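Summary of Year 1 activities. Much of the first year was spent building the evaluation harness for sequence design. The harness presents a backbone, in tokenized form, and records the residue chosen at every position. We chose the following record to illustrate the format because it has been used consistently in internal testing since the harness was completed.
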């Protein structure tokens, strides 16, 4: 099922862009309005020396590919720190799912006539 990956960036004290948080959600499977809170996190340095260097001169550790957040492979060894939440207001519209062979639970009297 489709996922949404969120990457939040901001300026640090030196004016440089740095990651403020990553998060991912699976999009809802029902049509309508959905209010969703996404837990955000950032990768942590693996050693004390790296923590000191990133604190002194920046930047924080970042993922090379932001899509890594949506994958499960390799995440069990990644150190992260929670960074709050982002609230999403999503309006989901389902269209032509039945034509593609997916059943989404909506009742439509003429949906099967076009197959």
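For this record, the design step produced the sequence shown next.
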């Amino acid at each position: 099922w489709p996922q949404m990956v969120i990457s939040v960036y901001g300026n640090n004290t030196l004016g440089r862009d740095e990651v403020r948080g990553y998060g991912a959600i699976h999009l809802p499977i029902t049509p309508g309005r959905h209010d969703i809170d996404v837990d955000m996190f950032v990768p942590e340095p693996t050693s004390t020396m790296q923590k000191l260097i990133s604190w002194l001169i920046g930047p924080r550790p970042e993922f090379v590919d932001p899509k890594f957040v949506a994958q499960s492979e390799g995440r069990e060894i990644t150190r992260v720190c929670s960074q709050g939440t982002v609230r999403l207001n999503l309006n989901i519209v389902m269209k032509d799912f039945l034509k593609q062979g997916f059943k989404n639970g909506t009742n439509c009297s003429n949906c099967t006539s076009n197959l």
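The longest strand covers residues 80-92. Quantitative recovery figures across the full test set are reported in Table 2.
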